[in-house]
Design a protein that fits this description.
By secondary structure, this protein is of the alpha/beta class. The chain has a single domain (6-99), classed as STAS domain (Transcription Regulator spoIIAA, 2-Layer Sandwich). The chain has three helices and three strands, in the order E-H-E-H-E-H. It has a three-stranded parallel sheet with strand order 1-2-3. Strand 1, helix 1 and strand 2 form a beta-alpha-beta unit. Helix 1 (20-33) packs parallel to helix 2. It is globular. It starts with 5 loop residues before the first strand and ends in a 15-residue tail after the last helix.
């Protein structure tokens, strides 16, 4: 049985365009270094579309590199759930490679 190398990135507070570059770099570094990255959004108070784009790009990067980016806990907190719904994104979008088997 293979042990999964996982790492958790926890985001908190009100996140917007100003935060996007640093979060992008943090996520890409984690994806580059670990098999699986758990993204904890439970502490996020608000999020804008720029951050949604960063999260989707990170997810695409993880998939392209055979890595897993997943929400943990899932579903995300209310603030993220609202913006994901407004953007037409379902929470199962985040189940990444683990369900694509």
């Amino acid at each position: 049985m293979q042990v999964e190398d996982s790492y958790t990135v926890s985001l908190q507070g009100a996140l917007n365009l100003r935060d996007a570059p640093a979060i992008r770099e943090q996520l890409l570094a984690a994806i580059g270094e670990h098999e699986a990255v758990d993204l904890d959004l439970s502490g996020v108070e608000s999020i804008d579309v720029a951050l949604v784009q960063v999260l989707l790009a990170a997810r695409k990067s993880a998939d392209a590199n055979g890595r897993i980016l997943r929400l943990a806990p899932s579903p995300p907190g209310e603030a993220c759930g609202v913006i994901f719904a407004r953007c037409g994104l379902a929470s199962d979008l985040w189940n990444s490679q683990e369900t694509q088997g």
